[in-house]
Amino acid sequence: MSDHYRSKDDETLPQLAIPSRRRALLRMAALGAGATSLLTGGGALLASQAARAEEPGKTFRIGYQKYGNFVVLKARGSLDKRLAAQGVTVQWLEFPAGPQLLEGLNAGAVDAGTVGETPPIFAQAAGVDFVYVGNEPPAPQGEAIIVPHDSPIHKVEDLRGKKVALNKGSNVHYLLVEALKKAGLSYADIQPVYLAPADARAAFVQGSVDAWVIWDPYLAAVERQANARVIVDGTGLVRNTQYYLATRKFATAQPQLVHALLEELDHVDQWGRDNVPDVAKLLSPLVGLDQPTLERALKRTAYGVQPITPETLAYQQQIADTFTDLKLIPKKLAVTDARWRVV
Where is the chain membrane-spanning (predicted)? Predict the structure, then answer.
């Protein structure tokens, strides 16, 4: 990824090592990460180009991010083998963050994927037709607000008037809002700088921003490599729950594939929980981070696939209402509309 700094007003994603058609989709996602429609005009054309013509159920397209149990599942190949016996091919598509993954889902390029707790809220507000199909337990220590080790900022209250980098619409967006609220500050009291993780890291290291709100493994990496200092993590503020989503159409038509995915993920989770060094060793060459950095991140990870419960949806509703009050999404959402009616 490119590591040069981009200004607040330039939300174009860095050039990624992906096909140009997907790169165009991701650029469009970055520009539409707010609550307006993610697909307009040329976007509809991109969506039709991205949607594949295979017979339904013959290809299962899974969106994943550079780190996490989807990467482990992909590397171990257990889902691929299981579904190959049923004549189904698994296609893995990598995205830089949750908002961009959900744009891929909206564009018809992805059937299922994994994201943090905030991207689904912005996606639902933008009209993306998905359902929640499962989640991981909370992992609040896996995201934090950080500053350079020699920064005069020591607590959230010190962020007043400061430039704070974050990926708009990502899980850390909610952490920032809640941390500011607890500190007696409003969102208007800071200068948010919306940057994708690679550009945000560059801005952070170069001193172009005062603080960065980020998740693992980026968090663990900048802690170890740049001696970044945490001023607050998600503990007592947010859950930092990882969700599994699918398009409503796919989950309705192919529930057995969704169940297979969740079952294989749970198997990976159970193995990973008891074998952190082995998971770190497996992930290291795949994500480009050293084993100690990954072990630090993995120790802050929660393990075990769980079903979506009313209590979970109530928490998501709380997030949605928060962003509605901030006018970051245009109208009140009913999160339960995205509940999967499990078959």
Answer: none
